[in-house]
Amino acid sequence: MITIRRRLERRFERLRGNDRGLAIVEMAIVAPLLALLVAGIMEYGLLWRDNLTVTSATRASARVASNLGDSYLSDYEAILSLDAALASVNGITIEGVLIYHADAADGSPHPSCFDGNGDPQSANNECNFFTAADLVTIAATDCSTSCTEFPNNSNCFGGMSVNFCPQQDRETDQTTGVTDVGVWVRVSREYTTGIFPGDGVTITDYTVMAVEPSS
Predict the structure, then answer these.
(1) Quick one: which of 85, 92, 122, 181 is 20 to 30 A from 193 by CA?
(2) Is residue 120 helix, strand or coil?
(3) According to DSSP H, which parts of the chain are helical?
């Protein structure tokens, strides 16, 4: 009886050993898939958060442009607001900003504000496009008193805002009908986890607000 019992115990021990080996194999198969799933959820969650941040920053920038109306510093302050709101977000780079006359029914920029490839551009009386290089220049410029980049003259002559001029093209008289001003932004956002192909995604967003009436 003792011999039979020992044989049974040894057989059960071997079976338990086989179960442990099978569990290790199963874990080796499942673990990478589980890690990929968790990384994907985290990446999409961070992307969703950053997309909301871009939306919030664009809205704040449009609010600044709306409040300043026909001030020659309207574009300057709107861009500083946008840059400050996105500066703390890792992996986001502003590729370009359009500040435009939002006269379309859906509030989108006028077709002339984009070239044949769909890239933004400045267009007379419609929009001002600021490149990534322009944004660096603006961030380093102090226009608190005056500056050549945003000159204080009604024709916006000699500065960056030469197409959709704040002092000339933005109506602030509510009896005439105030201008709707829009801020459109395109940013590149790097992937955080690196599990997806490519360097990242492009996020575009725009917000429209009516210029605050002065009379």
Answers:
(1) 85
(2) strand
(3) 2-68, 74-86, 132-139, 166-169
